[in-house]
Amino acid sequence: MDLTDHLGRPVVAVTGIGLVTPLGIGVAASWEGLLAGRSGIRRITRFPTEHLRTTIAGQVDLPDEDPARAVCSPERVERMAALAAAEALAGAGLGGRAEQGMGFPGPLFLGMPPVEVEWPQRLDLARAGNGPAAGTYPAMVAAATGRQDLFEGVLFGGVGERLADRFGTQGAPISLTTACATGASSIQLGVEAIQRGEATAALCIGAEGSVQPEALIRFSLLSALSARNEDPARASRPFEKTREGFVMSEGAAALVLESLESARARGATVLGLLLGCGERADSFHRTRSNPDGGAIIGAMRAAIADAGLQPADIDYVNAHGTGTPENDKMETLGMRAVFGEACPPISSNKSMIGHTLSAAGAIEAVFSLLAIRDGVLPPTINHETPDPAIPLDVVPNVKRPARVRRVLSNSFGFGGQNVCLVLGAAP
């Protein structure tokens, strides 16, 4: 295979992958659970859920986690991102180089959620005040004065800086958030840096740790979450007629990207290729897509064109597939507009792992590469009553053997932020 693509840019290879999902820590555990059609959704045990409308989520049990200690979202993001990155770097043959003083030969692109002081920290500050003013705003400000740990814990760029130090990446780490497209955006930035010749390698991570009371309340107020609390495993139902909302989840994925030339020069195993990226935004509404589907359709078409392909060249679509009535309807509209009557199979990993928000695009990119590697389409589980308004092959309930050479992976975020990736088989 040529080392440059149809536009003369360096071909981008994937040489390492890492996963942390509600199905397990590590690529093997997550992929095995996905192909088995096993749900990682369960009742929330990490914090009290009384009076919450939704009491289920896709939780990750971190190693040596103390259930009595409230861990804020940025810390969970950092820990899961580090686990995924360590696996990806080891698989790429680059693990341990930071410890040897050599470092990773490229920049870090970290996709993560916005951060803020959460209720456990606020309550600690309220308790720290003394006297009749205890719990008031001035008392909380006084209690927070000098708390360097609190400041660093809610510093958005701090997570990326610590990960960059840990893994020895080059240059200033880039931290970004583009709603539910965040994980795919981090990959897009890595791809483009290599294509422009600014780097020969990039470490791209998407991570999410926002399974916490405030986030659950906010999404519930948007009527976005499923409240099928009595049967968690069957709550996430993308593309199914009785779907009622997504299930919040957490996790992380890391991909080591390299130019194909660099990967071959050092004898690395190439797991697959990043062939194209497409990005479109519509700025129509904070949560809803423009009814004309222009940005969704445009992002899909742009990714396919960027890869130098035609729609008929796509073998499978890894859907955004959240299970909200709005998203599934709009993704179906986009599929029909791009592929016409010859839509390829489409399935949603979120039926099993829930919606990992900022991590979703990166996690689903890894699952797309594994579908290509193993020649199998993961299922959309909980597909019991087909929706006549969604005339798509959603690979219902059971995995399917298939020849998969090219995958379109969709990520559609709130605020009309949409990123699509085209992944291909290793040469």
Automatic annotation (TrEMBL):
InterPro entries listed in its UniProt record: Beta-ketoacyl_synthase, Ketoacyl_synth_C, Ketoacyl_synth_N, PKS_Beta-ketoAc_synthase_dom, Thiolase-like
Keywords associated with the record: Membrane, Transferase, Transmembrane, Transmembrane helix
PROSITE patterns: KS3_2
Gene3D superfamilies listed in its UniProt record: 3.40.47.10
Domain (Ketosynthase family 3 (KS3)) ranges: 9-425
Keyword Membrane found: yes
Pathway(s) annotated for this protein in UniProt: Lipid metabolism; fatty acid biosynthesis
Domain of life: Bacteria
Transmembrane segments: 12-36
NCBIfam families: PRK06501.1 (NF005076)
Family in the record: Belongs to the thiolase-like superfamily. Beta-ketoacyl-ACP synthases family.
Name the record gives this protein: Beta-ketoacyl-ACP synthase II
Organism: Paracraurococcus ruber
